[in-house]
Amino acid sequence: MTSRAVSGPVRSMLYVPGDKPRAIEKARTLDADAVILDLEDAVAPEHKAEARANVRAALLAGGWRVPVLVRVNGLNTEWEHEDREMALLSGASGLVLPKVEDDRAASQLALGCPLWAMIETPAGVLNAPAIAAVPGVAGLLVGANDLARVLRTRPHPERLPLLHALSAVVLAARAHGKLPLDAVFNDVRDPAGFARECEGGRALGFAGKTVIHPDQIAPANAAYGVTDEQARQAQALLDAWAHGRASGKSVVTHGGALVEQMHADEAQEVLTLWAATQQAIQESGAESSH
């Protein structure tokens, strides 16, 4: 059974440890836009085989309302081949590959299943444009914990030491029409810090955020979503733009500001995201009622 492909907004991607069956079942009921069943960092070596069996069972059972990806163990590990074979044969929506550092590795694993490349090292950041250019790559996910450790940065509430790397990943992904997803926020007891980091990531251009706890889903969805009021404002701008152009005006103003084609394009993007989000909510509600 093939899981639903990632096609709508990805405001939140929830990591779920593969060796926690109860957490996997709970994830079915949550409102994340996508789920990543994790076989890598969240699973101790002695539990890898058990986790793989759990993830296989969860994928084959179906019933997921959202796309389900599998984070496999990395290249040159003893688990890599069995992980990828299981995910591909069990119908995962995509493979999440840790520590991708060049386009060669990404190209080798573009196996007909969307690949989400984790950028977690300096080499990965420097080669992000080439990685994003690989046809089979669907998006880039930042792994800030490993990146910060290798760069020997110090913690900072605004992530100033990592801003260059974060922007580089966004730039690479957007240049090739791929989705950039921001890194996890480790302290689940700090909702204010999480909200601040979501807003910062949205400002940098990320499409959504990877999360590690159910309580982080709603704030991520809100930060990376579109409110009804924002949709209304976008529609009003488009209406003013269309009316002005139809009247033969070369300059259109709305709310006292000059409106150009790029503003109209941006407003249309807002409405498209809002419509996709509303559709996802409706589909989620309909499936929950069955």
The CATH C-level class name of the largest domain: Alpha Beta
CATH architecture annotation of the largest domain: Alpha-Beta Barrel
| Largest beta-sheet details | 8 strands, parallel, barrel
Strand content: 15-25%
N-to-C terminal Cα separation, in Å? 19 Å
Discrete helix count: 12
Q: Strands of the biggest beta sheet: in what spatial order?
A: 1-2-3-4-5-6-7-8
State the secondary-structure class. alpha/beta
CATH superfamily of the largest domain: Phosphoenolpyruvate-binding domains
Number of strands: 10
What are the low-pLDDT stretches, counting only 5+ consecutive residues below 50?
none
| CATH-defined topology of the largest domain | TIM Barrel
Helix content: 40-55%
Helix and strand sequence: EHEHEHEHEHHEHHEHEHHEEH
Number of domains: 2
Task: Give a concise summary.
The chain is an alpha/beta fold and 290 residues long. Helices cover 48% and strands 15% of the residues.
Descriptive overview:
The protein has 290 residues and is an alpha/beta fold. The strands form two sheets. It has an eight-stranded parallel β-barrel, surrounded by six helices. A two-stranded antiparallel ribbon has the order 9-10. The longest helix has 28 residues. It is globular, with a radius of gyration of 20 Å. It starts with 11 loop residues before the first strand and ends with a helix. Its cofactor is Mg(2+). It holds the Pfam family HpcH_HpaI.
